[in-house]
Amino acid sequence: MPLRDHFHPPLSHHSSWDLVHGQWPAMMVLQLNSRLPRGYAAGPLVHLGSEIEIDVGSFQTSFENALADDNGPTWRLPQPSVAVETELLKVDNYEVQVYDVNRNRRLVAAVEIVSPSNKDRPETRQVFVAKCEALLRRGVSVAMVDLVTDMEFNLYADLLNLVGQHDATFQPKLPAIYAAACRWIERGRKHVLETWSHALHVGQPLPTLPIWIADNYHVPLDLETTYEDTCRALRITESEE
pLDDT for 169-212, tens place per residue? Predict the structure, then answer.
């Protein structure tokens, strides 16, 4: 079945995009775990927003008592250099992680499903790209899947631009939706960035991406099958009948 546009009518009137983003990681995990060799395991990681609530009330009394007992020299706190009203970034993460369970659950691969909050502002795009770049530098392979049709930004291209590279297959116009698998490996005394990229199109099937769990070993992630399983599980396909 073809890729659907989950961000515009008529489908957006029948089903919300976040249902697909929430369910898809689970379907990817089921497929990957059926293909990963012994000693490796995949798991979903879905986190909505970025606020972290900390109950500081229980610490307040003991902290004040500690200050009262401190008879050391007095130091006056100067005015802050910067004091501006701002907001915490609210970024949704839809992710699949693959671990080497025999090496203290070392993270070896991550599949990042791009959400609207990853693309809607320059600062959230920067956070997403920086996260992917940091994973690659740690030796973690990264796959990016972006179905957000109502925003033109291409975070895969931004990732390549961050390291001073570009993908000639995405010229002359960067696609708004895409899928790419990336890894940064050491060959001899050089580090090589390798990517497998695909422009996506509504009405066309999704590709299969290599998920690298070692320098010489990968498992295929069939995006089309996992996507269709997601749409069937959410009864999205029923609206097409």
Answer: 998 889 999 999 999 998 888 889 999 999 999 999 999 999 99
Which residues, in sequence order, are bridge partners of residue 145? 113, 179
Q: What does the alpha-carbon distance between residue 68 and residue 100 come to, in Å, rounded to a whole number? A: 49
List C-alpha distances in Å: 118 to 109, 205, 216.
20, 24, 31
- Picking from 43, 50, 46, 42, the residue whose alpha carbon sits closest to that of residue 20 is 46
Query: Per-residue DSSP letters for 90-108?
Result: ---EEEEEEEEGGGTSEEE
Assigned domain for 65 exists: no
Does residue 83 lie within any of the structural domains? no
Query: Which helix (H) or strand (E) segment is 41 a member of?
Result: strand 40-47
Q: Is 21 left (phi over 0), alpha (psi -120 to 50) or beta?
A: alpha
pLDDT in tens, 27-57: 999 999 999 999 999 999 888 765 434 344 4
Cα separation, 1 vs 8, in Å, equals 18
- Structural domains of the chain, count: 1
CA–CA separation, 24 and 18 (whole Å): 10
Please indicate, yes or no, if residue 187 is contained in any of the structural domains: yes
Q: Note whether residue 124 is domain-resident.
A: yes
Residue in 195, 231, 192 with CA at minimum distance from that of residue 24: 231
- Residue 120 region, left (φ>0) first, then alpha (ψ -120 to 50), else beta? alpha
In this structure, what are the phi and psi dihedrals at residue 96, rounded to the nearest 5 degrees? -120, 130
